[in-house]
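BUG: 3D viewer hangs when loading the predicted structure for this chain

Environment: internal workstation, default settings.
Expected: structure renders.
Actual: progress bar stalls at 90%.

Input used:
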Amino acid sequence: MDNHFFKNIEKKTGVNMKDIFELANSLQNANFKDEKTVRGVIRRVSQIANKPVSQEMEDKIVESIVKDGKQLDINQISKMLNKK
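C-alpha cells produced before the viewer hung:
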C-alpha cells in the first residue's frame, strides 16, 4: 500500500501507523496464555489509542483472554472498552 493511504489513516485516527506496525510485529509470536504478556499488550494498545484502561477493565480483559482460554478478539476488547 502506498504511503498516502497510511497518512490518511493517521490523520483520521490520530494513531501513528509506525506504532501500529510495531505492535502488530510484536504480537506475531506473543504468548497470550501468559498474563504478563497480555497485560503488556493491553497497556500498549491503550497508549497507542490514547484511551485509558482502568485496572478493573484490564483485569476483565486479561481474564477473558488468559483464564477463560479465549483467543485475542479485538472486537470483543473494543466492546469491553466502549462500555466504560
